[in-house]
Amino acid sequence: xxxxxxxxxxxxxxxxxxxxxxxxxxxxxxxxxxxxxxxxxxxxxxxxxxxxxxxxxxxxxxxxxxxxxxxxxxxxxxxxxxxxxxxxxxxxxxxxxxxxxxxxxxxxxxxxxxxxxxxxxxxxxxxxxxxxxxxxxxxxxxxxxxxxxxxxxxxxxxxxxxxxxxxxxxxxxxxxxxxxxxxxxxxxxxxxxxxxxxxxxxxxxxxxxxxxxxxxxxxxxxxxxxxxxxxxxxxxxxxxxxxxxxxxxxxxxxxxxxxxxxxxxxxxxxxxxxxxxxxxxxxxx
Length: 285
Fold this sequence. Notes:
Distance between the termini: 52 Å
Number of domains: 3
Number of helices: 12
Structural class: mainly alpha
Strand content: 5-15%
Organism: Plectus sambesii
Protein name: Endonuclease-reverse transcriptase
Number of strands: 8
Oligomer: single chain
């Protein structure tokens, strides 16, 4: 009977014998430091009731958005190590919420896969169509894993498109000295820039969430706004939500008009057309 740590901390012990329990790796989320500390303490006490002990060596903490120093969280009397970034299910989660590190990591893994298939790209017996299909089904998914959660910046778009051009030109055996433009490479391979694909996936993902019932956590998180606090001085940082707002604004929809957003997402055909229009306009800009 698998139980998560959140079940233990919030609901206490179930009416089953403890040998049937297995503790799975889980995340504990707290809106404030005291809330997270209390949740961690509740989990530790619940685990102790059935003779289990939380490993303070394997437990890590990451603070997203906090710049000031906060009191440490302890388990078994030892301080929990605090990380600036953490790899979870293949994605790099940074304390500052920046996706650039994750994008760089994904591109590195994808290029390693591309190099291992060098014999295929250099083969004279395989058609270009087959090579491009292999590239699309093996290399691209490695590069764009969890891309729907990335924000849009000039740096991220450039990294993705440069990686794609580098791979496609090797497949086509085109040197940069041949003076073939990027648009011509896309035309010969019948592909789109990866930055455009990321925009499409982000909006498709948004449409799925907007069609969920209002009580689902994913939809609650998408519409959540902090109840207090003030933004610091300077230009606001580009975030995933601000990227989404710019995506929708490019097709004439304002994020603050929730009725218009929900109505558009509810119509799958209309939303599909909006995704295509937004991706094309964002590419031109």
